[in-house]
């Protein structure tokens, strides 16, 4: 018999279509963070950052469609987890500006992307109007 936790940990991709998918995103992020040995604080930071990025897909992507891909990291004896959020939306015009506290293209508080960046160990953003946006975040076990 396969438990719910086993099903979630074996899930390496999640389609993000609407807000109901955010629950699944958080479950998958949590399962993979625990499997990577992250502490509760590290896990919580990773889930919070990932949840914000998934919500951005729902709000900003074309038809609110995107995907989460997740993988485990192992480098020089260190373990971690990486989440990649992909959408085919209109892209981010100015990534540096979007990472500034208080900047918002939709009238929000403008803390999402800069807050997510502060919660993880590594974050990269590639974005264009033609190909959408790819955001990768990584958290390492300390």
Automatic annotation (TrEMBL):
Domain of life: Bacteria
MF terms (GO), sorted A to Z: kinase activity
Alphabetized InterPro entries for the sequence: HATPase_C_sf, HATPase_dom
Keyword rRNA-binding: no
Keywords for the protein's UniProt record, in alphabetical order: Kinase, Transferase
Residue ranges annotated for the Histidine kinase/HSP90-like ATPase domain, each copy included: 20-139
Protein name stated in the entry: Serine/threonine-protein kinase RsbT
């Amino acid at each position: 018999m396969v438990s719910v936790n086993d099903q979630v940990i074996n899930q390496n991709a999640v389609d993000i279509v609407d807000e109901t998918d955010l629950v699944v995103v958080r479950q998958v992020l949590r399962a993979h963070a625990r499997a990577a040995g992250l502490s509760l604080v590290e896990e919580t930071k990773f889930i919070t950052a990932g949840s914000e990025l998934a919500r951005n897909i729902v709000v900003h992507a074309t038809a609110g469609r995107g995907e989460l891909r997740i993988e485990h990291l192992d480098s020089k004896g260190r373990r971690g987890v990486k989440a990649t959020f992909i959408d085919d939306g209109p892209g981010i015009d100015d990534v540096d500006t979007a990472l500034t506290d208080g900047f918002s293209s939709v009238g929000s508080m403008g803390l999402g992307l800069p807050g997510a960046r502060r919660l993880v160990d590594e974050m990269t953003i590639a974005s264009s109007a033609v190909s959408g946006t790819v955001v990768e975040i990584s958290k390492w076990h300390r």
